[in-house]
## 1
Amino acid sequence: MSTAVSAASKISVRDLKKSFGAHEVLKGINAEVAEGEVVCVIGPSGSGKSTFLRCLNKLEDITAGHVTVDGFDVSDPKVDINEVRRHIGMVFQHFNLFPHMSVIENIMLAPVESKKQGKDEARANALKLLERVGLAEKADSRPASLSGGQKQRVAIARALAMNPDIMLFDEATSALDPEMVGEVLQVIKDLAAEGMTMVLVTHEMGFAREVADRVLFMADGVICEQGKPEQLFGNPQQQRTQDFLSKVL
Amino acid sequence: MSRLQQTGAVRHRTATVIGALLAIAAMFFGAVGASAAPAHATAATIGSAPATASTSLSGKTFVIGTDTTFAPFEFRDAGGDLTGIDMDIIQEIAKKQGFAVEIKSLGFNAALQALSSNQVDGVIAGMSITEPRKQIYDFSDPYFESGVQMAVAKSNSDIKGYEDLKGKTVTAKTGSEGETFAKSIADKYGFTVKSLDQSATMYELVKSGNAVAVFDDYPVLAYGISQNNGLKAVTEKEKGGSYGFAVNKGQNPELLQAFNTGLGELKSTGKYQEILDKYLKDPTQATPSSFWDLLVNSFPALMKGLGNTVLVTAISFAIAMLIGLFMGFLKISTSVLLRGIATTFVSVFRGTPLLVWAFFFYFGVPQLTGQPIDIWVAGVLTLSLNSGAYITEIVRGSIQSVDPGQLEASRSLGLGYAKSMQKVVVPQAFKIMTPSLINQLIIMLKDSSLLLAIGFAELLYQGQQIYAGNFRITETLLIVAVLYFVVIMLLTKLANVADKRFNK
């Protein structure tokens, strides 16, 4: 379990447990993510992948254990969680764009409201980000008029507007039509190439193999096995990993 | 409360019911009532003390409550001004005795409620002096000798006397001498009495055939017949009671004294007979007029009522929105206490009739606090608290129906809860709640007509005032209905335009 743990750890998870009522979803997770590392989390549904990811920016309250992200102790109730979240971008399966705002307003909202950026500066940054995801011409459109792939690229631009150190992707391509998956994955690949620290919960095994530095396989609320993609996909050690991969590959 | 229940019990049925409702309402405010009651007693005594000490009434203004619909004693003339025997007498006496009067046209029951709660200083409303009433009010010398008479529809040739009433239904005015008399002979002649609140509606009941005859005070009947109300008197008048002017027991003795002195003077100068003749001997015969004449004559008064309806609705709705937003947020709070407060508020005001609160605020609260309350304040409180309860639920439901992913996305960007609600959730909730809010506004506009029960001069109240004088109920109500309809249609259009504009 000690593969590829860098000394300059961006995310550190120690014995993380999470229960919903009597139902224990995470049963003791230990993980490290190094700066610039891209980690993909795979596993069957119900294994706790998304819950694990949502504990990293405290969208889920942590039942027990410690989570340190970017130097902040997320599990400490006294820490200013809003400040922590400004360093962590998150992209959701269902995009969650704000339907009552235009595309560019979606991107400008957080910089203006929480970073106290001037509107002009925020607009200029937002336009740059839209260019980066190839949607500059959609700046004044409403989210409702965009395709799924375009929506998710806007959502990524919105997360990037806060200039985060870490990006979390929660099944970012699961709700997309197949022909739109590629354009979103391309944006994520570009981010990886720029050295962004990322944790992705994904069902795209091919993509995980291509882009991940390390793959975590989760089952029943624990990390069952982890390793470099070629190792985990090519020569899985655990029976559960083998069973899962034989079904999805 | 003992005093309130006492007054309710000795009056008549409607008032007893109202008293009981007030008692229930007051139970919600048990703590307030208990602490305020002694204060009230003190305030009432102190309040009357300076007036008693004063020997001259010149320059003073007394608030006089009266009925809305008791022609020829009080009714609206074609121009919408209150006129009639009672009005002429009280104005004439005030002029001679050097005080001023402010007339409040409340309706008979409401005027007596207002007198009991010291909202008015005196009541002149064609009120018979009776023993039970003398227990709680001080009466002047009698100023009119009345008597009950029976009338039937003009076309009815079957009913010629009481003996023809067997098995039939007759009508009389709640709490009136007519009702007392009709009930006293009901068993003997085998008919049933159906009591109503207004002369004009009693006459409609007879004309529509739902009752065969009406028992009413003879001057009232005579005046109605002269105004083409479609009835004819068929019996001689029974020997009846005397009308008196009343003040609350032990209050305003100088006003009572001035009334008696003034009445004596009117009688000796012949002015009194002049007033009676004006309305009874030779009332202006109504010439049949067209619907157009009715429309033209009633329009100014109805427009005034419509203005009040729209204004009281606008103010109440603005306040109801504030209450609803505040309580709606309490309702979705994580604190059990705050949620409990909001839930209790909604249960109380959604679970009780609007009318109970109108009576409670206008008649009940002054008796608890000793302070009269402005009718606008009472009306706005009633409407806004009632509507606020519904809007609370609309707000709660709308906020909860916004996709939770919206709040998560905003929070994940580092925006706090309050900021996220303000910028992301509430704007979307507003879009969801707009149709329900428009609905609520329209309901409130129509519900505001219930305030006529406390004498608030809104549109339907003005309509009642008009048909009380001219007995053209159906046509007047038709005009009123059309006015409501037009205003609500315009309001709906306006709201839809605003909705499209702000909720793209």
## 2
Amino acid sequence: MKRLLKWFLIVVGALAGAILGVAIWIFTNPLSAWHFAERHILPEDLKITWESMDFGLAKTDWRHWQLNWNAEKLKIEKQAPHLVVPLEHIVLTLSMASLRFTIDDLQVQAAQPVRFFASPETEPKAEHNYYEQLKTALRFFKRGQKVIEIKKLDVNVTDFQYIALDKSTAHASLKISKSPDALEFISHLTHVADAVSEMQLHGHLHLGLTDLPLFTANLNMKGPHLSVQGPLSFKYSGEVGHFTSQIGIHYSKGAQTYAANPKLRADLEASALKISVESPISGIAGPIVKINQLAAAIHIPLEAGEEWSEQPTTLKISVPIALFFIDGNLRQPIEKSCHCRIPEELLAKIDGKVWLKTLLEKASPSKRPVMDAGFSVAGVENKLFSVALGAHLQVDSESGKWNYAPTLDSLLTIHSYQGLRQYLDAKNILIPAPLDILEGVIVLRAYGPIGIAYAQGKQTEFTTALALKMDLKSNGQNVAIRTAATLKTNSEFKRVDIDVLARIDQLLLDLPPFDPLRGIPKAKRDSRILLTKPAPTPAKKPGIQVFVNLRAETTQRNAIQLKSKLADPFVPLNLLIKQSDESKPTGVLDFGAFSVTYLRRKLYVDSLKIDLAETSNHDYPVDGEFHVQQTDYKVIVHVGGTSSAPQIKLSSEPYLERADIISVLLYDRTNDQLAGGDAETVGNVQAAMADRALGLFGLWAFAATPIRSFSYNTVTKTYTATIALGDGLTAGIGTNWEQSAQVEVRKRVSKQWVLTASWAPTDEQTEVGKVVLQWERRF
Amino acid sequence: MSEQILCDHVIVQDGRIPLTKNEEVLVCGRNEAVEGWRGIPLPQAQFQLNVILQNQGYLHARFERTTTQLRVWKGPVTNTSELKISGAEGLVNAGKKRKIVGYPLEPKKLDEVNEWIDMSLRRQGYACPAIKLSAQAWDATILAAAEPGERRRISKVETTGLESLDYESIRRYEAFQGGDFYDVIDTQITAARLLNQGLFQSAYFTTQCYDDKVDLHLFTGVGKGRLVRFGLGASTEELPFADLWFKNTHLDDKASSYTASLHGSPIKQKLNISSELYWLPISKRTFLGPRFKMERRKEPAYELFKTVLGIDLGREWDWQKVRWQGRVGPSSNYEKTLTGIGPKEFKTVSWEGSLNLMNHIYEAFSREQYEGWNAGFQYRGQRQGIGSSVNVDRYDVTFKHLWNLGAYSPPLFVFASRFEAIAIDSKQTSNLQERDTLPIDYRIFFGGDENIRGFARESLNKHGLGYLTAAHAGFELRLIEELPYHLQPFLLADVARLGTDRYTLDPPLFVTSGLGIRWASPFGTLRGSAAHGQIWHGDQSSKDYGQHWVYFISFGQEF
């Protein structure tokens, strides 16, 4: 036992001697000791140099020692993370007594730029949550306060530079000084980001663990358009950390001005971080909504020993949306229509869960949820309309790949089309007759998942579906249309493609009660007359580009029925129209068989197709066949060419020459049975047809109405025709149709007798005119 | 300013807006219509009224709309301040187009300008021009951008529908020749000549341009050759009359024809048979014209019965944009003067010939009477011994010119002038006492709408004996398109001098001044005039002629 004790004492003594020896060696050969440590102990990428360094240890009495360290031009460089810290000088006076240290003076002066270079994230996973980190820090401060007392502190870094990966540099200065009961700091940052050019944080750090807040500061941030200002405070009491702030945010760019004053409170406790935000907002107005308030509550669960909990964070955001588009003028008629009160605001809510562990921590190979959130707007239900807007977003992650599953489920029902019409009327949006008298329901629904397309691992497109259903009726009219739309946008939301498919199940409409011979009114003004000077085209603002691709089609034969007293039984129409922003409309209007009875004559339209592919002359190709059943002949008119200059082919059963066909068509007699004036009329019709001067309406008039005379001017390519209305009345029509030219050089008084004027020179070579009641026959 | 209530809910505050019945449907709806069209939403009425007003030249209309009423202020009409034409410098002069500047800026005026430029270019050889019209409301300017294209010559003429007719013969109607610069007037004239011939029921040209040429295609429709007409009617000379008319226009493949007509009225009863027979082997334009006429005519100064049997050699052709028509041939005449001065009865052989010239512009616009000229020379003569008791020749020279002053379109003033000289050469009847041996056709009766309008028809007749020499000039200054309903007022002046002896013009000078009005009605030209006849340097021979106002109303007769 003695021997054992003897060896133990020898070993301990040797160790103590070695330590003492090393200490004496270090103290007497500091430079050699540093080089030894630099080579064998410190990280290889760390390099510390200095110009001069004084190191002194003095014993003030038998229990007190004082360490003085003074370094000039000290420079610390490290490669990972990459930083360069050149210090002008550093002075440390440290007293030690009875195992308690007092920093009598610590001065750090950095006049040269201190640079920190950003590097890809390589931080190890934290093993504690924020609460634990806070507690550890506070414990550290508490212990530190027991062993270290700071009497004087003066840190001055004039230019701290943070060099980002993209080489952009943010500058900051930092001053820390010791006040009697706190550390005071002023940090001034410049070129923080594009939106923030200057930021200052001025505050105090109370480390005394008193009732005073641990941290108070005033934030002042400015940018080209942004201004943020307000107090921040963090207090720890009762095992709970309370962070509060109320900063004013003001953003102004051009005509846009946004402002918010969020009141934020975050309570950090062992089991959760609870954040609540309430803020008035001004300036956020969409096309039809306006947001004045926002309130959010976020509950982040904490789990011991984990940076982020497996439990989801819950968030609730509520935003009252003001219906400012319903102004006073509008509210009254709508409320009158729906017998209801239109609310001033609708409450929009976002309610969801976020798994921060999945979101922020390293990717897991297994599929894990990231977010599950829903958006809804408080429903409105009245006699005019009901709204239920909802959307849902589900996000999960698998092996670092994020999968988004957004869905929509929104429903807008217009219970009263008439109410909508009144609203649109007030908004100067025209619903023309006869559609204005319809009544019924319109349902707009956005539903189903929002599709997401990926390319090279990135989301490139989002698609969603809309459906519009109209079921409108009036006395004798019916509109049943189903419309499905798909919205597609790119990942930057710079372009939105909307594909619309309108399927017309039934469209029964009344045509206006026009008398065709009174002229077809022009539906639009003459575009040749320019009302305003064409302004120079402004440079197109980069914004969201919206492209609409429309396809409209009838779902059953003769789904469109246009009713008129002239048409028997109606004008049946089938259509297929395709229209996109990038091209002119294409498609076809396909009329079914019907007949037109006018002025006791009947024209049968066997088929008529109008191709909507516009020609270079702003005209439309046509292809149709009509027939007229005269006493002994059936005259068939085939129409090709274009609508305003049709090519007309005539045939008959039994066979007739072209001139005879026209003659039969006009007068129900062949050419050889015509009087001279009538024969001339036939010739003029032929000439007008050859010149393609007869448009579709002109063709209809000459085929379906009793023409009395037809005069064609080959020079001006205009025609005038006189049509017998019965009872001796006539009407003139012309190329321009609106012209009611009463040009008539012959007046038929019976089938064979014509009142005519003759200028045939007499044999005396004079130009004597005659008015003749004439009978004529050619044989 | 009075307001117009278009319908219950639409009120025009400053004047009236004329609407067609169909426009009323779109603005006001119609009470008796189906439900959908009984009322029109006010925004739609506003939109439609704006379209209507802008098409009427009201480019700055103002609207006020409440939930129940639409008030409309038409505002002032925007009148065109200037017409600018580009691309047709030297071809079309904008300053010559009337009725545009100072008139409402409306679509029909743009159409009018378009037609005018198009026709102007097509009259100068630019067969396929392109014209683009626009108008600027802010300065009321109409801009016309013309692309005349190449000036084109007629390359070839194709025909369709001639059936068995010989095209070379039909070419006698053509107002142009291959290689001529294209002129739309020429094709129009050609088609009109074909239609007037009677055989053709339709005739029109289409054009096809390529390079510096234009091809014409004549489409015709040939009717059955025999045409019979019967008519009852009236004219300014006769009221009433009846006509029976027969024409065979298709005697052969050269469209030789003959016409027979029977005319009866209290003043005139006539049988006339005439023909154009293209039977000569040497020419397809020269025809033989056998003719027969039997007539009884009752005029204030005489009553006459005569028959004429003759044959002519005739030819019609075009040269230098002028239609030339000539014919000459002998006639066998039987004439009996029933009342009045003249040989009671005679039979004779006479020669008759005529040469008429008419430029194409006159021919194309003969109804409008705006410009152009025509001229004529007629000869008739008979020799003593061949059924005639005297040697006598009659020469008529006429010239008429229409001058569009300033060459405006439409014209502002048309200055019309006509000259006529008639000479009857018969030495044997130089003595007045022997004058009654002259047939009526060889005596000159003056006065009336055809020559000197301040004197009644054929009232200057020297107590029924007539004159042997006459010269007259007539002038008319007509104002165009300034009065409503296409009424054209005119000032007139005539001057004439007559001679009792051959080749001699004696005093006095017959002068006429007055005014009148012309209306080109759909049925023909109606003219009325009031003219005051004056006799300058009157003598014993004119003391029986009255100098007073003479009023004429004529139908179908031009200056």
